[in-house]
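Hey,
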Amino acid sequence: MASAEPPVPGGKNPGNNARSAARLGAVQALYQMDVAGTQLDDIVDEFVHHRFGHEIEGEIYPHADEAHFEDIIRGVVREQRDIDLAINGALAKNWSLTRIDSTLRAILRAGTYELRRCKDVPVKVVINEYVDVAHAFFEGDEPGVVNAVLDRLGANQRKPGGAGNAAAGSS
């Protein structure tokens, strides 16, 4: 049975800066929305006002770039259909987004959104950041899956004529 509480990496730190913290929080929030059905505005409020910069059950949530966090969360929700189609197209043959772990799904959705909309962040940075987030939650092959999928999507999203060039900049 899945928990309604987003997983917190066991002492692993995917990065110390505010954007890294925003990415980690976005993955946790997307997970919570997926598993517990928490509403978008409620999850944004919870993280911005009650998690970032606070200690909860012995875990300290670092301060995060709240605008980047909110952009990722709202962007994934707004563009989820297109994001999911892109991810499904980049997964290995006979795999679909519905077959993978909820946390891995959240990582891929957030990473795909950033590749598509956050043109100020280099593709390699997006990929490395989300591979680091995956390492915070998984010890198996999952970080490699994140790397492979986001690498495929990054090559397509940022090239001339790629799907991500339809709307420049982040929302």
